[in-house]
Amino acid sequence: MVITEIFKSIQGESTRAGLPCIFVRLTGCNLRCVWCDTAYAFHGGTKMTVEQVVARVEELSEGKVRLVEITGGEPLLQDEVFPLAEKLLAMGYSVLVETSGERAIGRLPREVIKIVDVKCPDSGEADTFRIENLDALADGDEVKFVIASRRDYEFARAFTARHDLDGRVRQVLFSPVFEDPEGKWPGLNPRELAEWILADGLPVRLGLQLHKFIWDAATKGV
Ligand code: SF4
After folding, report:
1. Which of 3, 66, 97, 106 is buried most deeply by CB count within 10 Å?
2. CB-CB neighbours of 26 under 10 Å
3. Is the CB of residue 43 below 6 angstroms from any atom belonging to ligand 1?
């Protein structure tokens, strides 16, 4: 498989935000979200076997960190992601997989916690979510919307209601786009998003990317 980076950090998003976590970032993505903050994972990378990836996770874990997130890029583009997830689960890790939901998520082992990032209109990749994936979501999974504008918010609100996401998954997350440190795209003020959520009384969690507050927003490998 082709890997961009493997590192240990604080989980920045999802209901596991704040927990120590080992991240395995797979190279390559078939989407091009305008606000993508991991474009460095589109190309390059290092070829590694599943065993080598697991060995590096074990090294970073030091027997203490038991949470692993497989991310990208889009991790489901590489077939080795399935044996990797199985192996990590068998070793007793809790495994999160973050995906756009453009590929079928049903092939992942049931115990994997899927964090599905449904693309909103302002991402430039709207309508890429594979609707059959709704049936593959389990109680422990999470659905995330990264929101850049009021238009995105209204899309996410309608999608959540139409598909009863709150009843299907552990958590629906609404996260504001974080401003690009080089000014390539603007951010959405979290306060604005918080006020919209409160005004509508939505059953969703406001998600902030903790790592961008702890470290500089341009820092990789955190
Ligand atoms: S799906 Fe994720 S990695 Fe791919 S372009 Fe969008 S934000 Fe970036």
Report:
1. 97
2. 26
3. no
pTM score: 0.95
pLDDT of residue 28: 98
Query: In this structure, what token pair is assigned to residue 77?
Result: 């583009």
Sign of CA dihedral 30, 3, 221, 63: positive
Residue 216 pLDDT exceeds 90: no
| Nearest CA-CA partner of 95 in 55, 38, 140 | 140
Kindly give the distance from the C-alpha atom of residue 54 to the centroid of ligand 1, in angstroms, as a whole number. Answer: 24
Tokens of 212: 């961008």
Angle between helices 81-90 and 50-61 (to 10 degrees): 40
Contact 23, 9 (CB under 8 A): yes
Q: pLDDT (tens digit, 9 = 90+) per residue, 37-59?
A: 999 999 999 999 999 999 999 99
Whether 60 and 221 have beta carbons less than 8 Å apart is answered as no
Q: How far is the CA of 73 from the centre of ligand 1 (A)?
A: 6
Any ligand 1 atom below 6 A from CB of 36: yes
